[in-house]
Design goal:
Number of strands of chain B: 4
Number of strands of chain A: 0
Radius of gyration of chain B: 14 Å
Number of helices of chain B: 2
Shape of chain B: globular
Order of helices and strands of chain B: EHEEHE
Helix content of chain B: 25-40%
Oligomer: heterodimer
Largest sheet of chain A: none
Largest sheet of chain B: 4 strands, antiparallel
Distance between the termini of chain B: 37 Å
Order of helices and strands of chain A: HHHHH
Strand order of the largest sheet of chain B: 2-3-1-4
Helix content of chain A: 40-55%
Strand content of chain B: 35-45%
Structural class of chain A: mainly alpha
Shape of chain A: elongated
Chain lengths: ~90, ~110
């Protein structure tokens, strides 16, 4: 039990454990594209559950800066979302 | 010849007979004009995200077919006139995947 608690604390404070303020926090920005891995889900206008993740509450498309989707996949996503909106699915 | 997918949204207040009639009608149109229907899917009654012509719900019918320019022209001309269809969408594909069904009902 003690060991588990220690591990949990370490993870939580890792971002605050920097030596100086100007040290780069590389763990936060080194995210890879979730749609270009092996066995990635199909980007299609019928696959609504996937498209819902990349849309805000107001129905806007979320930028790839936030979701870290690659450029080519983001283009495809935007097209498929617009198709789904025409059919009234999103 | 290329592959296409066509989705039709029919009006909510139609009887079951009319729905079957619509489904058969476009199936025949595609088959007559040098096309070939690969698969027909019925997604059933779904809620629309926003109102379309003052309707909140609609019946979705989905065709996967093979055809050329003539079939596309024939379908779009018929769909534009049809008053029982609220909206439609045709998409061109290089290959059709018949296995995946995203709107399957869980029994």
């Amino acid at each position: 039990m003690k060991r588990k608690n220690k591990k949990f604390q370490k993870r939580g404070t890792s971002s605050l454990n920097k030596l100086s303020l100007f040290q780069k926090n590389d763990s936060k920005f080194s995210k890879k594209c979730p749609l270009s891995i092996k066995n990635a889900p199909v980007i299609d206008y019928k696959n609504i559950n996937l498209l819902k993740k990349y849309i805000s509450d107001n129905g806007k498309i979320i930028s790839s800066k936030i979701t870290s989707v690659s450029f080519s996949k983001q283009k495809k996503l935007a097209k498929e979302i617009k198709k789904a909106k025409i059919l009234g699915l999103l | 010849m290329a592959f296409y997918e066509n989705t039709i949204i029919a009006r909510q207040d139609l009887a079951e007979k009319d729905l079957i009639a619509i489904k058969e009608k476009y199936n025949e149109i595609i088959n007559k004009t040098s096309g070939k229907v690969v698969k027909i899917e019925e997604w059933g009654l779904l809620n629309l995200a926003q109102k379309i012509k003052n309707y909140k719900k609609g019946f979705y019918i989905h065709y996967k077919f093979e055809g050329n320019k003539e079939t596309l022209n024939e379908i779009t001309n018929k769909l534009k006139i049809d008053s029982s269809v609220i909206r439609y969408l045709t998409v061109k594909y290089k290959e059709l995947d018949i296995k995946n069904e995203f709107f399957k009902k869980d029994n």
